[in-house]
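Run Glucose 1-dehydrogenase through structure prediction, thanks.
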Amino acid sequence: MSTLTGKVALVTGGTSGIGRATAELLTKNGATVVITGRREAEGKETVRLVEEAGGKCVFIQGDMSLEADIEKAVSETVSQFGKLDIAVNNAGVEVAGMVPEIDKESFDKVFGVNVWGVLASMKHEIPVMLKNGGGSIINMSSIAGHIGAPGLSIYIASKHAVEGLTKVAALETAQQGIRINAVAPAVIETAMAERLFGGDEETRTGMIARHPIGRFGVSKEVAEAVLWLASDASSYTTGHSLPVDGGFLAT
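Sure, done. The structure for Glucose 1-dehydrogenase is below.
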């Protein structure tokens, strides 16, 4: 694996789960990492964990559904560190509900972060990377972007949108030194998964059975995929969605 020494990375939604694991792994491989998120206490905890391990991490508080906060995160990253080489657009939210139950407020909440947040992030990341001569952008998708699932209508729709945005942006920048890919996890042991299952062990057991590998994933396993896409080891890969799913999509 190529190292990321001297690289500067921005990870949105870096306050917990996959975002935190990604920040930790990128710094272990030499990158300086800026994380964003709405929760200050959790953001500072990520910084503490990274710094205790010998890495360099900065927290910028922000809501990734707001373009002004996204622009601020990108501009402050460049102001502090002079450039942006890697962007991991990881911030995401979920709302469950059957189609007749969905209201505009729920739609706006999910699409505001999951879709507009990703699009607006790329909008501001790409011009900065072009000034550097290139970079790597990784959008956090989901197996939800490849399937349908009753009760998850707007979350499923939002991740399908992330898949499409990733492909379009990758084509637009392919000859300009910027690679844009997505990572598509199955169920990962995070707070989001716990919210979806609501402590229902029967549902949890049934969902595990849909993963041929026989378990849910952990955040570090997703972070490893992000690391590969962020590094020069994936230099010929763009416009790709990489499942990290324990075989889910193979069934």
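The CA atoms of residues 30 and 163 lie 29 Å apart.
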